[in-house]
């Protein structure tokens, strides 16, 4: 017997709300510098914890995405914003936050010839100029397979290149818009060829109806293109119009998948229900570097 009823949210997914001085200060700063964060736009469940700890993931290239992925809460439409001064403002905010590790992502900008790669590169360079000791991680779109655009980003030498596969191959076309499973693998492969010393990273959402075998196959595909860091988290349906959640994955299953990923050769695996791609990102880069040195 099948049912379309939404599964009941379990106790382990309770989110602690922390809106102290750090949270309010970061929110005010983002507004004053006209900056966007994926923390807000994608309704990340960890925003209270991360902002309270003075960490945030900057979202460049505006807040309107040219794609309409069925899992994502970011606004979609035709972007009107291309702010060439945005990289400097991101760098200034990173200085104010005194960051040691900065994560930069973006909406998809398929309306731009290079998909926004030049703005990513400029942002990396601006942060480095103002905060030389701050590591920079970029979470990029697939640039519609424009490998020249990817090279622009890789030539700017981010400390981590992140591109999310999001789900298993069978579900990819239903969950993502325009992005292709095999193109994601090709991007990660080419990124590693362009800059072998830069760690690559990807993320899988669980609870969309994937099987354990499919998760392991996706891990194997990522390792085949030498992806170094993996994050796994629970998919949470942002609204009734988004793709339905199939099930809530128990923390014990996430713990086992972490062991499986490490066995397969990932240098670091972050795996828990509330994990998102940039959650504890500063710890991921440190762990990956330590494991790579062994």
TrEMBL record:
User: What does the record give as cofactor?
Assistant: [4Fe-4S] cluster
Enzyme Commission number, as recorded: 2.8.1.8
Question: Binding positions for [4Fe-4S] cluster 2?
Answer: 65, 69, 72
Q: Which GO terms describe its biological process?
A: protein lipoylation
Name the enzyme's class.
Answer: transferase
Coiled-coil-forming residues are: none
List keywords of the entry alphabetically.
Answer: 4Fe-4S, Cytoplasm, Iron, Iron-sulfur, Metal-binding, S-adenosyl-L-methionine, Transferase
Query: What is the free-text note on the cofactor?
Result: Binds 2 [4Fe-4S] clusters per subunit. One cluster is coordinated with 3 cysteines and an exchangeable S-adenosyl-L-methionine.
Q: Which InterPro entries does the entry link to?
A: Aldolase_TIM, Elp3/MiaA/NifB-like_rSAM, LIAS_N, Lipoyl_synth, rSAM, rSAM_sf
Where do the Radical SAM core domain residues begin and end?
51-267
Short name of one Pfam family: Radical_SAM
Span-the-membrane segments of this chain are: none
Compartments reported by the entry: Cytoplasm
**Record's catalysed reaction(s):** [[Fe-S] cluster scaffold protein carrying a second [4Fe-4S](2+) cluster] + N(6)-octanoyl-L-lysyl-[protein] + 2 oxidized [2Fe-2S]-[ferredoxin] + 2 S-adenosyl-L-methionine + 4 H(+) = [[Fe-S] cluster scaffold protein] + N(6)-[(R)-dihydrolipoyl]-L-lysyl-[protein] + 4 Fe(3+) + 2 hydrogen sulfide + 2 5'-deoxyadenosine + 2 L-methionine + 2 reduced [2Fe-2S]-[ferredoxin]
Q: Which GO terms describe its molecular function?
A: 4 iron, 4 sulfur cluster binding; lipoate synthase activity; metal ion binding
GO cellular component annotations, sorted alphabetically? cytoplasm
Q: In which pathway does it act?
A: Protein modification; protein lipoylation via endogenous pathway; protein N(6)-(lipoyl)lysine from octanoyl-[acyl-carrier-protein]
Instruction: Please list the residues that bind [4Fe-4S] cluster 1.
Output: 39, 44, 50, 278
* Similarity comment text for this entry: Belongs to the radical SAM superfamily. Lipoyl synthase family.
Q: Which HAMAP family match?
A: Lipoyl_synth (MF_00206)
The protein's name: Lipoyl synthase
Write down the species.
Answer: Cohnella xylanilytica
